[in-house]
Design brief:
59% of the residues lie in helices and 8% in strands. By secondary structure, it is mainly alpha-helical. The protein has one domain (34-144, 175-252). The strands form 2 sheets. A 3-stranded mixed β-sheet has the order 3-5-4. Strand 4 and strand 5 form a beta hairpin. The longest helix has 18 residues, at 33-50. It is globular, with a radius of gyration of 19 Å.
């Protein structure tokens, strides 16, 4: 009886949970966006209470300026926080939350390189990658209990839920986005930065810079789960001409950010 119930449930989910990402990829999503947003809001609140936030107004202004230009292309109000952390990392969470590490700000040469990272992370949110991962995991292995588990982040199941959301590192759990998600976020992020008026060619320079830093032994959580250096640049270059056209149109429409590091 249980097997029949699980089979019928699986068939129902497969028939009702079809979605399409911004790039046209088919997705399996059945959790409500409101549920996932609430998880993102809770996790971001926990981060702010447990991790030091920068007191350097220059860092905060720089990150906010770049993020605001990017998110103007997505709509909604986004909160941006710069954390005192020397790892080269940034993230965006469902619920319109963006975190940037001071280590990344110190690394980038200009606004365009930071826009490449923030655009990528916002791309994950726009493509509902957290919802997709949570939907797949709950459907395959743990059932709907995963939804409630995030309210108990110190439990084993709660840690897994937060890891699936993409925010597990602070609990010692890192369950990375898939390479499909990472490549898709690269493409979406490239378009976002171009539409905002940033130079998309700087995205390639940024990843080269990150790769060099990794070889020098610097901790780069951001790159640890991403496609290989060559694959990433190949994907970016395949979309570069279109992105440059978007940038030119943005400039023609007066979108030309001036964010000083």
């Amino acid at each position: 009886m249980l097997k029949k119930f699980l089979l019928s449930t699986a068939v129902f989910l497969a028939l009702t949970a079809c979605a399409t990402s911004p790039t046209g990829r088919s997705q399996f999503i059945y959790m409500s966006d409101n549920q996932v947003d609430q998880m993102g809001l809770q996790s971001f609140s926990d981060m702010k209470s447990k991790n030091p936030i920068t007191h350097n107004p220059r860092y905060s202004q720089f990150a906010s300026c770049v993020a605001q230009a990017i998110t103007q292309q997505t709509g909604g109000q986004w909160e941006v926080v710069v954390f005192e952390d020397e790892t080269l990392n940034a993230f965006a969470l469902p619920g319109n939350k963006i975190g940037v590490h001071t280590g990344l700000i110190n690394l980038v040469d200009n606004q365009d390189q930071l826009a490449a990272v923030i655009g990528h992370e916002v791309g994950h949110v726009l493509a509902r990658h957290s919802n997709e991962r949570l939907s797949q995991e709950t459907a395959v292995s743990t059932g709907l209990s995963m939804v409630q588990a995030v309210s108990q982040p110190q439990t084993a199941l709660g840690q897994t839920a937060l890891g699936l959301l993409g925010v597990g590192a602070q609990y010692g759990v890192i369950l990375p986005f898939s390479r499909v998600h990472e490549t898709e976020a690269d493409t979406i992020g490239l378009d976002l930065m171009a539409k905002a008026g940033f130079d998309p060619r700087q995205s390639v320079n940024l990843w080269l810079k990150m790769d060099k830093a990794a070889q020098g032994g610097q901790p780069i959580e951001f790159m640890s789960t991403h496609p290989s250096h060559g694959s990433r640049i190949e994907n970016l270059n395949q979309h570069m001409n279109q992105a440059l056209q978007m940038q030119q149109q943005a400039r023609n429409n007066g979108r030309q950010p001036h964010c000083s590091k």
